[in-house]
Amino acid sequence: xxxxxxxxxxxxxxxxxxxxxxxxxxxxxxxxxxxxxxxxxxxxxxxxxxxxxxxxxxxxxxxxxxxxxxxxxxxxxxxxxxxxxxxxxxxxxxxxxxxxxxxxxxxxxxxxxxxxxxxxxxxxxxx
Length: 127
Description:
Helices cover about 15% and strands about 40% of the residues. The chain is mainly β and about 130 residues long.
């Protein structure tokens, strides 16, 4: 069983664990995860090569986003931000399986609400 990992260069796991924020449409079909890596190894001065995407790799295979941007402070790269979007409930469920494996592999305290369709602010909607 392979360990869940994030890669900016194929075959090279990024050791820095990102801050991850999820947003999801009210109907749950679409959404995105924003990953922010502070001082990732991928932008270290000794790293050679262009970052062309972010790969999320686990035992089911891989997911990729090409939406990766550098953040600069005083002209020096300091962070990477990547956005992974999904367009279906199946894509979201696949992402969440990766997120659970990644959390487990990195000793993170990840938890999912009991009702995965529940969204913040949903209590201001009438059923």
